């Protein structure tokens, strides 16, 4: 019987897993079996956290808007409600950037919403 050489497919798969585990502590970054388990777990967290990041940023924008609006003696919920009534379509990200980088423009939008 002829000996079968495995070729490069299995080696390539293992090298890819070990490359993903690079930087993990101890033997997890060096041994294939433990690296495989660790990378599966880390990819699960990465998928979950990509979804969670969207909520984290939304909360950050709301906090920034609320702080900027309190300087103008107004609250966040009244401001958002007034924007919806006036049919001003600006999302929270843009409003928060305006509040941080261009306070005059943000104050102008607040005045329009107050009318």
What does this entry show, briefly?
The protein is mainly α. Helix content is 73%, strand content 0%. It has a single domain, classed as c-terminal domain of poly(a) binding protein (Orthogonal Bundle), CATH 1.10.1900.20.
Please characterize this protein's 3D structure.
The protein has about 120 residues and is mainly α. It has one domain: c-terminal domain of poly(a) binding protein (Orthogonal Bundle), CATH 1.10.1900.20. It contains five helices and no strands. Helix 1 packs parallel to helix 2 (about 30-70), helix 2 (about 30-70) packs across helix 4 (about 90-100) and helix 4 (about 90-100) crosses helix 5. The relative contact order is 0.08.
User: First CA to last CA: what distance?
Assistant: 89 Å
Structural class: mainly alpha
The helix content is over 70%
Averaging pLDDT over every residue, what do you get?
94
Low-confidence sequence ranges: none
Instruction: Using the CA coordinates, give the radius of gyration.
Output: 26 Å
How many separate helices? Answer: 5
How many domains in all? 1
How many extended strands? 0
User: How much of the residues is beta strand, in percent?
Assistant: under 5%
Task: Assign the CATH architecture.
Answer: Orthogonal Bundle
């Amino acid at each position: 019987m002829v000996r079968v050489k495995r070729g490069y497919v299995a080696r390539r798969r293992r090298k890819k897993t070990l490359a993903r585990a690079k930087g993990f502590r101890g033997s997890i970054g060096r041994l294939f079996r433990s690296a495989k388990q660790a990378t599966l777990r880390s990819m699960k967290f990465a998928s979950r956290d990509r979804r969670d990041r969207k909520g984290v940023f939304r909360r950050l924008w709301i906090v920034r808007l609320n702080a900027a609006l309190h300087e103008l003696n107004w609250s966040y919920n009244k401001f958002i409600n007034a924007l919806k009534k006036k049919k001003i379509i600006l999302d929270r990200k843009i409003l928060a950037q305006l509040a941080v980088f261009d306070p005059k423009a943000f104050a102008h939008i607040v005045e329009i919403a107050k009318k």
